[in-house]
Amino acid sequence: MRSSLRAAFWICIYFLLVFSPLIILLVAPRAEGRTFWREFSVALGYAGLSLMGFQFIPTARLPFLSDVFPMDTLYSFHHKVSITSLALVAAHKAILIINRPSLVRLFNVFTAPGRARAATISLLAMIVLVLTSVRRKQFRIQYEHWRGIHIVLSVVAATLALVHIFGVGYHTANPAQRALWIVMPALWLLMVIYVRGIRTLILLRHPYQIAEVREERGNSWTLALEPVGHAGMRFMPGQVAWLTVQRLPIAIREHPFSFTSSAERTDRIEFTIRELGDFTSTVKTLRPMQCKPGQCVYVDGPYGIFDMDQYDVPGYVFIAGGIGSAPIMSMLRTMADRGDQRPLLFLYGNRDWESVIFREELDALKERLNLTLVHVLERPPEGWGGETGYINATMLDRHLSDDRAERTYFVCGPIPMMHAVEKALLELQVPLSRIHTERYEMA
Amino acid sequence: MHDVYAQRILIATVIGIIVLSALFAALQAGLL
């Protein structure tokens, strides 16, 4: 099935899942003596929970979803839907209280009945969940700690919301509605079992060992891994994987990175990682070592469709900023190994000349590829004759060929740069369908 | 590119939820 058809299929399934409680409410027999605002509020509450529960699915890294939708879009969608579900649940409570102010007493977790207490604690868990996700960096919560908090709060919020629904029993006398709220949580639980159980077992049977830790320019390090007891992993250039280094994969200490090595090699895979705090700052301390218990690396992947092999086009344009060159490097190395001579243009933005990651290798790749390399420096050295500042429409217009609408574009780097480049490309009449972007901040 | 579609799906979700909820509430309250 074509990927657009598969995407349409999964979007229909999403709408069906999210709207199902409301559809069941609509077809249920009409009750007597109900008021508009109370029923409206209840429906919003149901929809909020169905959206909240749906969150367990896109983040489960299910192959049939990650083969169709970009991972960063799935995660960005997850963030926005979570905020929407919180807004719906909050609206559910607000409308109830505005409609009947005496119900405010149900917010007192010490005196309220259990079903109301469950709802309040669930709402609080959702608020903390969203706040700690949106403001993780401002709150200075380490990524690994945040992952743990996130999983616990998600399960608590969803479980207590279900306790509330069945405790109140409003509309759950309807067998279809009751069945729905048993089947849907079973599906969410299945996702948790799959992520934390089945996939962990698969990873444990496919360990890797550290073959090399190489210093790169720009405060970055390349981690080279070799498979132990298995043939390694096939991936597409541009895809990502989640790494768990020297811990068991159940430890929730995994981090997403792009493959930087050639997709033509499965016996050795590489990831180039810039020091940005948390785990990324520990890469330089790693040393090559045999895979012994507690010392192995687990690679969960490959994921994503930021992948040049999907598009058979006359040529590619790569636009990257800083460490955003990591997936581009995998594409260039793969094309060089394949002897691919299609025309390539790479606009590569960096702060200064010394921090240009892969600088020497990119020069060498020009000999093996039909590659035009344009360095763009924010702080150029004295006597620099190349491009300076930030990549913009005027600069792109200078370098793009006349067949610009026929090329496929891969853009990766800091979010402000990606937005500016995407806007500039659209101004230059590049069709939206030809522009592929990858954000680095998924979580 | 996909972000544009994701944004549209989210907007459709919110509109769908509000419309279906209002429809349900109006039916239950005997307004329709």
Protein architecture, described:
The complex is a heterodimer of chains A (443) and B (32). With 443 residues, chain A is α/β, with parallel strands linked by helices. Chain A folds into three domains: 3-202; 206-303, Elongation Factor Tu (Ef-tu), domain 3; 311-438, Nucleotide-binding domain of ferredoxin-NADP reductase (FNR) module (Rossmann fold, 3-Layer(aba) Sandwich), CATH 3.40.50.80. Chain A has eleven helices and twelve strands. In chain A, helix 11 (415-427) links the parallel strand 11 (408-412) and strand 12 (435-438). In chain A, helix 1 packs antiparallel against helix 7 (175-204) and helix 4 crosses helix 5. Chain A is elongated. Chain A starts with a helix and ends in a 5-residue tail after the last strand. With 32 residues, chain B is an all-alpha fold. Helices cover 84% and strands 0% of the residues of chain B. Chain B contains one helix and no strands. Chain B is rod-shaped. The termini of chain B are far apart. The interface between A and B is medium-sized, with 36 and 24 residues.
Index terms:
A: 443 residues, alpha/beta, Elongation Factor Tu (Ef-tu), domain 3, Rossmann fold, 3 domains, six-stranded parallel beta sheet, B: 32 residues, mainly alpha
Main sheet specs of chain A? 6 strands, antiparallel
Number of DSSP helices of chain B? Answer: 1
Order of helices and strands of chain B: H
The oligomerization state is heterodimer
Helix share, percent of chain B: over 70%
User: What share of the residues of chain A lie within helices?
Assistant: 40-55%
Strands of chain A, total number: 12
Q: What is the terminal separation of chain A in angstroms? A: 30 Å
Tell me, rounded to a whole number, the average pLDDT of chain B.
Answer: 90
Q: How would you classify the helix and strand content of chain A by structural class?
A: alpha/beta
- SS element count, helices of chain A: 11
The low-confidence runs of chain B, each spanning 5 or more residues with pLDDT under 50, are none
